[in-house]
Design goal:
CATH class: Alpha Beta
Largest sheet: 5 strands, mixed, barrel
Number of strands: 13
CATH superfamily: Spore Coat Polysaccharide Biosynthesis Protein SpsA, Chain A
Shape: globular
Structural class: alpha/beta
Helix content: 40-55%
Distance between the termini: 93 Å
Length: about 400
């Protein structure tokens, strides 16, 4: 039996309840106490009726061409990198699902993939494990703009008032819980002000020209110290190598492309920055759920050109004043975009160094209990004579009375 959401006229099921349990780790709700008193379902119903639904989009539509030679050495095939197990027991895509589901129900986590991915048995295995209706297949890869907007149109049909988090599927993150705590904070910021589009920005530890850079309005050290979000003054996608050092000195943060927004806010930003792209996906949105949907998507993808979301949309709206684009700084998280062999090897080497360093640390000795002090002997009985004051002050030792 599901719980009815009064605002959206739909039912929440057991998966949504589990998602609520996981979210409670971040917002402090005492779920165990509520369950013991039989109040969990009522509390979930009350909260779900006034808190916007949280949805997610996993970007997995790319083919990973730059990493293809490295994957071919590993596997002797051209399986796209997001389906490959490069570390641990999961693929990069499965790591992304695991991370996102700390906050979002699997039934509300949509994944965009390429049609050509489905020819690989390993890709089929991973995608068939996802809930029905959450895999969105695009005819071909047209970069991150269409790659985000196609699943967003499907999501919009089902959850038009939702708040959405976007997760690229090729990130390496060590401190996952801490990172997702920042995503949770971004959800809260958007919930308080629906006009904001919040990006997570990581403090750089090296000059990296292949990343995008977010220039905040506030000084980076002040921003990191406060942990608050602030407006973006400039967004620079993959700058020239000669200016990267200067961007870092000026307080630039790495763009993780993990962002949170209301659906209407992003669509409005796309309309202002790239109106023709917006029109393409309005056509697709109207066709979703009809018998002509597949034909419309096919025809529209043939007509559109590749469009990078960061360069064609985020850079443009960052120049608006005031800008709807905000950045939330992330500190204390080891993050890398695994788009190249060098970055993969650097991340794994750094992780190995840290593991070895921890292993060399001497084991801590158990704390010793403080020695018990001997019981104090009772003080001698003071003599009651004219020297009592001096004796009491420790100036004279009491003499034995006859």
């Amino acid at each position: 039996m599901g719980v009815r959401n009064r605002d959206e006229g739909r039912h929440y099921g057991r998966a949504d309840l589990e998602s609520f349990r996981s979210q409670s780790r971040f917002d402090g709700t005492d779920v165990a106490h509520l369950e013991q008193r039989g109040l969990l379902m009522n509390t979930f119903d009350e909260i779900s009726s006034r808190v916007p639904v949280r949805c997610g989009i996993v970007l997995a539509g790319g083919n990973g061409k730059r990493l293809a030679p490295f994957i071919r050495q590993m596997r002797a095939d051209d399986l796209p990198k997001q389906y490959v197990n490069l570390t641990g027991s999961r693929s990069m895509l499965e790591h992304t699902f695991y991370r996102a589901e700390k906050l979002i129900s699997p039934e509300r986590l949509f994944t965009v993939v390429g049609r050509n991915h489905l020819k690989y048995p390993e890709a089929q295995r991973q995608l068939l494990a996802r809930p029905e209706g959450t895999i969105v297949v695009q005819p071909e890869n047209k970069e991150t703009g269409p790659g985000l907007l196609l699943p967003l149109m499907h999501l919009y049909k089902r959850y038009p008032t939702s708040t959405v988090a976007v997760f690229p599927s090729d990130h390496f993150i060590v401190e996952e819980d801490l990172f997702m705590l920042h995503v949770h904070r971004a959800f809260r910021i958007v919930q308080q002000d629906a006009s904001r589009l919040v990006l997570l920005g990581v403090e750089p530890n090296a000059p990296e020209p292949e990343y995008g850079y977010i220039m905040p309005e506030k000084k980076r050290q002040d921003l990191l110290a406060s942990g608050d979000a602030c407006e973006v003054s400039q967004f620079i996608e993959k700058p020239e190598r000669c200016v990267v050092h200067e961007l870092i000195l000026q307080g630039g943060l790495w763009n993780t492309m993990v962002m949170v927004f209301k659906v209407d806010t992003l669509l409005n930003a796309v309309y202002k920055a790239a109106p023709q792209l917006h029109d393409f996906f309005q056509k697709i949105g109207k066709a979703i759920g009809t018998s002509s949907a597949a034909e419309v998507v096919e025809r529209t993808y043939k007509a559109m050109w590749p469009m990078n979301l960061s360069r064609e949309v985020l850079e443009v709206i960052s120049r608006q004043k005031p800008s709807p684009l905000w950045v939330l700084p992330v500190r204390g998280v080891r993050w890398s975009d695994w788009g190249s062999k060098r970055r993969i090897e650097d991340s794994l080497k750094e992780t190995e160094r840290r593991v070895q360093k921890e292993a060399r640390k001497p084991a801590r000795k158990p704390a010793r209990k403080p020695a018990r002090k001997p019981a104090r002997k009772p003080a001698r009985k003071m003599v009651k004579d004219g020297r009592q004051d001096a004796v009491g002050k420790g100036l004279l030792w009491p003499t034995k009375q006859n």
